[in-house]
Amino acid sequence: MGSALIAAFAGWADSVAQQADPLAGAPVLERPIDCLASPGGRCWIQTFMDHDLEDGVSDSYCGSRTDNRSNRFGQAHQGLDIGPLDWAAWDTDIRVLAAAAGTVRGTRDGLADAQVTKDGRDALEPQACGNGVRIDHGGGWQTMYCHLKQGSVSVSQGQRVEAGQPLGLVGSSGLSSFPHLHFQVMRQEGTDDPATRRLIPYDPYTGAALTEPCVVRRRPLWSAAALRDLPYTHLHIIKFGFAGQAPNFQNLLKDLRPMDSFTPKEGQPLYAFAYTAGTAPGDTIKLHVEDGRGRTLLSGTLPLKKRAGRHWAAADVTQGRSFKRLKTAEGAWPDGPYRLVVSVVDSSRDGVEEASTLLELNPAP
């Protein structure tokens, strides 16, 4: 058999093998960001891949934790958005890391970090990724890292990088309204000729292509450690706890954090709150607060009526009837520590996400 025929046969065999296993040659991906999105971590997964190419949404596991983006695949969000809990956490400089070894195919830097509104979207569409890095891992596989902080990109085109190597910092450049990393996995179909080349996004959680329905399951592209650090949850409690000021959407995004301790004062409010993702109309958020003796101070349920990517609930513990009754009877704030239990109930799947925390009461001045 001639060498040309052998080469042709080998090429045909490789093509058939790739069709049989679209994940052939795929790299094992490590965590692309230097923070955890698991419970207690300082980051969270804002948006998963959307496998519904029309007007609806369908994330990696057929849930609603994704959204629509206008692009060449219709309305589908093509990757994974991971970011800090709020703007204050972004100020600590969170590193973006190479998910696997490869060669830098291209970079961009110099675009300002911003909070883009609807009015500014069209102007930024050509530079939607913002400051970014693209890495070629061989075998047609590439990863892309978008919205990096201005001036932070630390690699250059043609440079060889290893898994875990810093590429830059999380930012809000390009088409971004909040600091985050947009991470995208792609496999190239066709040749390097731009006329025939096509990059197909793949879901790192299931191994399904963006163009396939969410029920397709192959195998994760993530390593076991990355799956542990970046878990999928249908419902997610972003942050929760007690606060001395009234929570609202603006301060939850900016810098509101739960307190570990509190000094009771006459007339001082004490809010219990929860900030959630993956919730939808018909779901409920329940806040239940007990004192140090297990007595109920506040118990309330908020039914969610509006469709939104995130919801929040808050209540002033000191305005609850049970709190007022105990305070009047005992002549002081009920004993601590106070315990808050947050329960988020998914009406469509009968799922429940729960979390709890304690607040220590300091001696009154």
UniProtKB/TrEMBL annotation:
Q: What is this protein called?
A: Peptidase M23-like protein
Tell me which residues make up the M23ase beta-sheet core domain: 91-190
A single GO molecular function, which one? Answer: metalloendopeptidase activity
Pfam families reported in the protein's UniProt record: Peptidase_M23
List the CDD domains.
M23_peptidase
Fetch the InterPro entries from UniProt: Cell_wall_metabolism_enzyme, Dup_hybrid_motif, M23ase_b-sheet_dom
